[in-house]
Amino acid sequence: QLQLVESGGGLVQAGGSLRLSCAASERTFSSYTMGWFRQAPGKGREFVAAISWSGLSTYYADSVKGRFTISRDNAKNTVYLQMNSLKPEDTAVYYCAARRQAYSNHWVDYAYWGQGTQVTVSS
């Protein structure tokens, strides 16, 4: 079973940057669509970004478009989320997720999840 481990979260001031990483346990990582989701206190899980198995197609929520970049390195079984120009409203627990099928922005469509990493943006 695919296991995912996120890292790279932390506390940053508004306007700053963070890079999240998500390491996968299987060599079959390259066959999965990967997504990043986030959940703020008292709110539902929200789509942030996704990337196709090849890395050729990427998808973003409108709220992060132009500020966040998703990428993957299939040789390292790792997906990344580069977050720039961070805002206080980006504060949340960030999760990476995987699914064998094509892109979806619905969290219920993803079968595999990491434990999450906290991102806090101070104003």
Largest sheet: 7 strands, mixed
Average pLDDT figure: 97
Helix content: under 10%
Strand content: over 45%
H and E string: EEEEEEEEEEE
Q: What's the number of extended β-strand segments? A: 11
Alpha carbon gyration radius: 13 Å
**What low-confidence regions span 5 or more consecutive residues with pLDDT below 50?**
none
Provide the structure class.
mainly beta
Q: How far apart lie the N and C ends? A: 40 Å
**DSSP summary: helix tally:** 0
As an assembly, this protein is single chain
From the spread of the alpha carbons, the general shape counts as: globular
The gist of it:
With 123 residues, the protein is an all-beta fold. Helix content is 0%, strand content 48%.
